[in-house]
Amino acid sequence: MAGEETVAALRSALQVSPDNLPLVLHLGDTLLSLGRGDEAEREFRAALNRWSDDAHLKVGLARAFEQQGKTSHAQVVLEEICGKPDAPARGLVLYARLLLRAGEVDKAVRTYKRGLAADPTAADETLAEQLGVRPAAPSADHDHDEEIIDGRERQRLGGEIGPAGEIERPKIAFSDVGGMETVKEEIRLKIIYPIQHADLYRSYGKAIGGGILLYGPPGCGKTHLARATAGEIKAGFMNIGINDVLDMWIGQSEKNLHALFDQARRSQPCVMFFDEVDALAASRTDLRQSAGRQAINQFLAELDGVQASNDGLLILAATNAPWHLDSAFRRPGRFDRILFVPPPDAQARAEILRVLLKGKPVDNIDHEQVAKKTDGFSGADLKAVIDVAVEGKLKQAMKEGIPRPLTTKDLLNAAAGIKPSTREWFASARNYALYANQGGAYDDVLKYLDKR
Length: 452
Prior knowledge:
Blueprint: H1 2-16, H2 21-33, H3 37-48, H4 55-67, H5 71-82, H6 89-101, H7 105-118, H8 125-131, E1 148-149, E2 152-153, H9 181-196, H10 198-203, E3 209-215, H11 222-232, E4 236-240, H12 252-265, E5 270-274, H13 290-304, E6 313-319, E7 337-340, H14 346-356, H15 367-372, H16 379-400, H17 408-416, H18 422-435, H19 443-450
Parallel strand pairs: 3-6, 3-7, 4-5, 5-6
Antiparallel strand pairs: 1-2
Helix pairs in contact: 1-2, 2-3, 2-4, 3-4, 4-5, 5-6, 6-7, 12-13, 14-16, 16-17, 18-19
């Protein structure tokens, strides 16, 4: 009853002071604490119509999604937020929890450590125990709160992970990627053909190498496509995440970036793939910390090959929020080609289902029929469909004592209970495509939406 009175009091206060953002956040938090996630979702959505860029409101919306079991929706929101250097600690910890559920333990650990670095009070003891993360013991003189530690200046930016510097040799090629023919052809023109026909390109004065920015909703195969690009030309492949670069010490992030580019230059031809690149290439006008700006300047210098030639270096980057990138990254010679990676079409969905169902007991699955009923689903959503169907079969096997194979009906029933996570992304992207589409950068988004 006390909870109802608190909610009523907060709503009354908001009627008097509708522009009070802290009051809105307090109301949303109160509703969540009472287990009323659906109401909290409505409050956060309404508030985001007014304060569209507020990260704390977005974290609140993600918490509301999680409380209602809308895990994929929460991940879409959190991927955008946590890709930024100044992501709220609460959001990072929640994202780490969702990553752990998805089986991405290493990424969950790194994300959780970023959350602790940003705000130690956001610690989640249960999650920390599951991840095997133990907080550092505070010293008597509280060095952990100081800005100078061991003679180095701290910047509250990220974890303590150094550059991986690992070179892969992918065995997959474009033939292993379903659909996305337009995107593949653009990559061929920009990256693959210059390697395969080096003399022809040099005769026209074209350098071998360059950068392409892939954007679109999460879970639609941007990383898989980048890996296939390297496999197509038998090149080395470096998968670089934000935690491979960002560091809590002033100047270390720039050193990490230089070391990664140096490693790639020694292994050319090499494809460097920067995932969640908006965290490394955010608009400098949005950054409060000079340390973040220095890392961006270093990134630009490496792309330009100021200290060493980038000939034979192929750079791909992926982001769910291209509108947050600094405009300097879109100049010629950097990420001058921006490609939209849409959700997989029906043919690609059928291929994805075939791959995901390999090794599982199945009975004459009609992949095309399931693909037709999953319009707008990302690859991650299709994996969720199969996971739900498998869980249903496991429950049935427990009752009957007999394991039965997956059928088309099982997959269709599972798909009917899952909403495509891409809708949340398109809701945000549409606004940018309509009202912040300088130079027609997001015309492909509008074309995609017009066809639906």
